[in-house]
Amino acid sequence: MPGFNSIDGIASNLNTTEIVEAIINSERGHIRLMEEQQSSRTDQMTVYNSVSALLIGLKTKAAQLAQPATFDKTKISISDDSYISAAVSSKVATGSYRLSIQQLARNHQVASQGFADSGSTSIGTGTFKIQRGDSSATTIIIDSTNDTLEGLRQAINASGAGVTASIINDGSENDPYRLLLTSDKTGLSGRISVTNQLSGGESPDFSGSSFDIPETLSWSAAATSSVSLGSSASYSGSANKQYTFTVAGTGIQTVGSGDLLIDWTDGTNSGTITVSAAATEVTLEGVGSDGLTVSFAAGDLVGGDTFQVQAFSPIVQEAMDAKVSLGTSSTTGSPIVITSATNTIEGLIGGVTLNLKKITDANTPEITITTEQDSAGIRSSIEDFIKQYNGAMSRISEFLKYNAETEQAGTLLGDTTLLSIDDQMRSMISTVVDGIDSGYRVLADIGIRSSALGELRVADSSKLDQAISEDLSDVLKLFTNWGNSSINKVTYLGGSSASKASGLDGYDVDITQVATHGYLTGTVINNPGDSPIVIGDNNNTIKLKVDGLVSEDIVLTNGTYNSFAELVAEIQDKIDADEKIGSRNVTVSYVDTGATGYLSIESSSYGSNSNVEIQAGSANSALTMLGLAQARVTEGLDVVGTINGEQATGSGQILTGNKGNGTTEGIRLKVELEAADLIDGTEANIVIAKGVASKFDDLLDSLTKATDGLLARRTRAVQSQVDLTTERIEHEEARLAIRKEALFKKYIEMERLLSSFNSQSAYLETQLSQISSNWNYGKNSN
């Protein structure tokens, strides 16, 4: 204690500090034992965390190997990947395919005529409608705040019309600024159409071809004549190109004084025009002339002088679908031609996504794509699992072993938790897979065994390779969570760690309610064949909510519909083109009741979340005319049934065994039965087996779960002991501190008393000495 060291030896000559420290150190022995326990338990938790990390890594490999998709690996070879790339999107059948790429998909691009500037010249006011493909037209309002080329560009880009507007400068001396419109979608379905209803300005034109004003390139100072377009010039071509003119001959030549020759070229074609008189229209002739005429004013021209005329076509790039031929024309076969709105093609080769890069040509007329089973990839997945297993087991062994040579014990030698994990893992390797009729029921059947030291290895490589190449379906059953149904309309999707294998007898599936689509039905309207339905600007819009997703305004094409077939086709097309719900595969149909009928709109999804609703309030609504204003909504139903007599919960067509079920917890089935398929009793029987990897996945899940896994529970228990011991140590340390202070106080009191006794003893000695001196003095006096 501070200040107490000063008492050492004051009266007693004892080192009281050492005495007190020795007493406290002796009494602290049980605390040291608790601290040793703390260190051991901390090491124990560190090992548990290390083992948990190892097992989580192994679980990742086991879970991958437990998936049937792991055994669907396909290797794709492409003869020249500069033309095309490919990726596997699902199971692929092996085969060889020859393709030629005839055309790539392109965006539609159109440009306006030229403007002198982009920010001041008025383009007029009114409405500007723009439409991409079959999408609903977007109306843009142009007023005095945005009546320039730049204002229109910004308005288009903010409209969400699916078209991007930009301003380009073509470098011309006169009117160089053009508005370029680019469709956001490739293919014919992304074509741009414009309805221009602007007035009072220079309105942008995206349909007319024209010649620009001639521009001089190299013009001598001595040249006094000028060139202009002829009055009848009208561009009949379709390409954007440039005509270059060169005055023939040398020196000064006077227009109208004899024939004056001028050569021209458009880069591909060429010719010569003869100018015989001033202010007279001269017409280009021959291929490439395309209606161009020019006129020269009176004056002089100089040989070698040049000028140009730009020919403008508004179609900068035609909308184009990709076009691919499957097969070869070099034999008697006839290739199949496939078109696509994009350069990404799915479904041409089942399970393969193709990305087109460039058109095949004479040097490379065909691309060969070969698909084959990726046996090496499948084996690699198996070997990755083995490697991860050996790594985890080796580390666990280090924690448990005793080295007799070094006399060093593993961190958790004899730990029952770790011993249990080690035993379960090694037992799992030799487990027999029940419930399958495969020739492979244990790992040893495909050449995988444990060595004498417990290491898992491929003991017979040829046996494993043969099994993968010749009996892959049986190899799949050996490893995966696998199920087989007695009927096609009930499919096993998977299970959980709590699911139990069924054995060869399987689990009976009893369905009492099938899943249904949500839909709406309109009220009765007259048959358009008898009473045509007229759609116009004031009654052409509907809006739907499908499975909770609200569409854009769906604008029907104005016109007279004389049959329900026409009307249904129009509504279906416009729904399919909608940006929000077009991909939901909504189905429109007509229910004929004779002279009348009604519309039905059905969602493609199943279950209680499947529904179609009308969204009222849209301008120019067609709901009343179509009988949809008072439409009746019918929500879909979830599948209902049992698996192995145990309750299951339906979500759409997916039936899942309830939590707590003895055998079927977590089992998921896809039930595609229709009402007509239901019978009394069971509709299907499902045989479910758990392969080695699936069992490992379940075991490792029970060991490594963060909340209630074995290692987590054990770690929490040890941590609880550590926390309790920490409290006890703190309590004992506090008690010893008080004890130490009390001892120091006692020694202080002892020193005080000894000091007092010493003082009294000295006093008495002095007094006795004085008395003795006085007595001796008196005695001597007598």
Strand order of the largest sheet: 31-50-33-46-47-48-49-32
Number of strands: 50
* Structural class label: alpha+beta
- Quickly count the domains: 7
The major β-sheet equals: 8 strands, antiparallel
* Helix share, percent: 25-40%
Shape call: elongated
Number of helices: 11
Beta-strand fraction estimate:
25-35%
Description of the molecule:
The chain is an alpha+beta fold and 782 residues long. The chain has seven domains: 4-47 and 711-781; 77-105 and 321-373, no CATH class; 107-205, Sandwich (Immunoglobulin-like), CATH 2.60.40; 211-317, no CATH class; 379-482, no CATH class; 485-515 and 639-690, no CATH class; 519-634. It is built from eleven helices and 50 strands. The strands form 14 sheets. It has an eight-stranded antiparallel beta sheet. Helix 1 runs antiparallel to helix 11 and helix 5 packs antiparallel against helix 10. The longest helix has 72 residues, at 710-781. The chain is elongated. The relative contact order is 0.12. Mean pLDDT is 89; it is low at 1-6.
